[in-house]
Specification:
The protein has 13 helices and ten strands. Helix 6 packs antiparallel against helix 7 and helix 11 crosses helix 13. Helices cover about 40% and strands about 15% of the residues.
């Protein structure tokens, strides 16, 4: 393993004066290994061996709650906005996430290019007095505790060399210096939009007044301009959809594909889906992770956000549900109206009935606007 990482690092090595495009072409290729000595890496590496430093800090929020990372670990927790109506959704999110993880373990036995799934690790009940007595102090003081939590593997942000290159290449010049030192930009994941090109700003338009690397949108024309292997991205997404539909049997509603990183070593254990089904809702499932190397991180294409997914059978009704979910999330997937060649690469391994219905639905939606 050490020799493999060394070879990858040598292949991906950069000079300080490399232009941003060169950096991004090398480093945004899937399975690139990036060596970094950034403050993020140093703080996390130090905390990985000192539990007293492993505090939680907020890194984002979504429809169902707030997300906190834990320093020195490859873990995040999702906290429901309220312990009322949202808490059942949090437990269901855990169940669905585990179902997806196990489905990919079975469905990808052929070794096809596939995405990485952040591992669901544990569910912490607000009633787990032992856990909260030992960990409540790790959260910011303004967070209302105890609360039900869902812990999963963290998709680590892209390393600093990539973040700086993204800012140099895509951030408006008048915002650039401020964005290079903006702390929130350290939480950088890149959304891979194969179904959409970026808009060209007209000279008559006012310059943008906002820029962020949080959930940065990288569009198809930008990926082509960087020389990224969009065909491999398309094939990987198609394989992921096939597993979600026909192995996991869910509609894949509102899932996301992002580029992020992971430590070169990680060891985490979690209960199986069958074990979770036998447990009462809101049962804590605490496990321990370790063996993390934050100074060397691997770039992966990740698949995440399964809380909106619904179970289906692949009959006519199930195919219709999968088509509807695809159409609502089509910025991630190749589209014939945007790039016909990439569309052919994408659909060649997907069932013809699904693709035929997708095309009909796209044409119907296009006629409405």
């Amino acid at each position: 393993m050490a020799d493999q990482i060394s070879n990858l690092l040598e292949h991906a090595s950069l000079e300080d004066n490399d232009p941003p495009k060169t950096i991004l072409k090398k480093m945004l290729s899937v399975r690139s290994v990036v060596s970094t000595s950034s403050s993020f890496a140093m703080r996390n590496q130090e905390a990985s061996s000192d539990p007293s430093l492993q505090q939680f800090s907020e890194i984002g929020q979504g429809n169902c709650g707030h997300v906190f990372s834990q320093l020195g670990t490859a873990q995040v927790v999702k906290r429901a906005r309220e312990d009322g109506p949202e808490s059942p959704a949090l437990w269901n999110d855990f169940l669905m996430h585990k179902k997806v993880e196990q489905g990919f373990e079975v469905g990808n036995s052929a070794g096809l290019p596939t995405v990485h799934i952040p591992r669901p690790i544990l569910y912490i009940s607000r009633n787990d007095k032992t856990w909260w007595d030992n960990n409540a102090y790790r959260f910011p003081n303004d967070v209302q505790l105890p609360s039900n939590l869902l812990m999963s593997e963290r998709i680590l942000p892209l390393p600093k060399v990539i973040r700086d290159a993204l800012i140099q290449l895509y951030c408006p010049e008048h915002l650039r210096s401020a964005q290079l030192v903006e702390p929130k930009n350290k939480d950088c994941l890149v959304r891979v939009y194969l179904g959409k090109n970026s808009e060209v700003r007209q000279l008559s338009q006012r310059p943008p007044m906002f820029f962020s690397l949080r959930n940065f949108k990288l569009h198809l024309n930008q990926m082509k301009d960087l020389g990224l292997d969009v065909a491999t991205f398309a094939t990987t997404m198609a394989n992921a959809l096939a597993i979600l539909h026909w192995q996991v049997k869910i509609d894949a509603a509102d899932v996301e594909f992002v580029l992020g990183s992971a430590p070169t070593e990680s060891h985490v254990r979690a209960p199986s889906h069958a074990e979770l089904k036998k447990m009462d809702p809101d049962s804590s499932t605490y496990v321990i992770g370790g063996g993390l190397t934050f100074h060397q991180r691997v770039v992966h294409l990740w698949l995440l956000d399964f809380n909106q997914c619904k179970e289906i059978e692949m009959n006519d009704m199930g195919v219709a549900a999968a088509v509807e979910a695809f159409a609502l999330n089509d910025r991630y997937y190749p589209r014939p109206s945007v790039d016909k060649n990439l569309w052919r690469v994408f659909f060649r391994d997907l069932p013809k009935k699904f693709i035929k219905n997708v095309v009909v639905e796209m044409e119907r939606r296009a006629g409405r606007y």
